[in-house]
Fold this protein.
Amino acid sequence: MTSLRPLNRRGSRRGLARRVGLPLGALLLALPLAACGSEESGGSASDSESAGGESFEPVTIEHAFGETEIDEQPQRVVTWGWGSSDAAIALGTIPVAMPKNSYGATEEGLMPWQEEALTAAGAETPTLLTEGTEVPFEEIAAAGPDLILANYSGITEADYEKLSQIADTVAYPDEPWTTPWRDVITTVGEALGQSDEAEQLLEDIDGEVATAAEEHPEFEGKTIAAVAIDPTAFYVYKGADPRVQFLEDLGFELAPSVDELSTDESSFYYTISTEEVDKLTSDVLLSYVADEATRDELAADPAYQAMEQFQDDTVASVVGESYISAVSPPTALSLTWGLDEFVASLEPAVQAAG
């Protein structure tokens, strides 16, 4: 929960690469990355600090593996995957345990926006769960949760059954690593008895995104393809990926070629060979790269020079692990944290596209 991997930030959201068998960088891009974790924690919270109301109305949340009934206000929340940690923190609930991150993270294992939010809340760092593709069941159990949020993750049905024996567990609604980032927030809000607060949070975030779109009318209607490139593969993000949905929020349209070349390789991305990359046509090509050296190396690669976007200078690059993670996919905390940098990275390519 999502890596250049098709981060969906990331099985370990970045351990996913170690999240789904893809190279770490690719995974992150794939998942951002999928599930995240950590071997050591920088601290722990005795109980989730919750901003929920005084009364809690029982809720039933449907998901891919059935439904989960939550009868009482959660007090000790554990998160697994990507995005649910940030949604809980943004709503005032500090998890007792959450995934550790390595890609674009601090030395302690927090994403920069998480560190800022925890500091602003005066909260200690939660226990950080070991990063990797495997769910750390023993660590989760040791945290003594009464609720496990894995609504943007890659857990299997067998994982879900094991987690449910530890505490009430909420899985993703349909396919792994495809939950729209807005739905991550609303589901976490529902589970915590804070649906109204979650809606307000979304209004605030959408307001900032809408403002960015209004300030850049040139984005409207431009076709775009979002990709992650590493030495072994060329990853293309499909319309189901939250990264693409975020681009659509800014006014872009998914290039028809993305669907035309799509395979059933994954629910949110697919790979194409260097011999076919020239078929991925679009007004703008958005590439996620770890550093400027990699960006320059890709631009000089003869295989990619065959693409019209490289020929026409309509390639936009999101550079830097933290900024890649912030939109791979976006979360309740990361979206606004990296929004200005993200928009700025798109401007030159859109201008070149005319």
Notes: Residues 195-215 form the longest helix (21 residues). Confidence is low (pLDDT under 50) at residues 1-46. DSSP finds 14 helices and 13 strands in the chain. The CA atoms of residues 14 and 266 lie 17 Å apart.
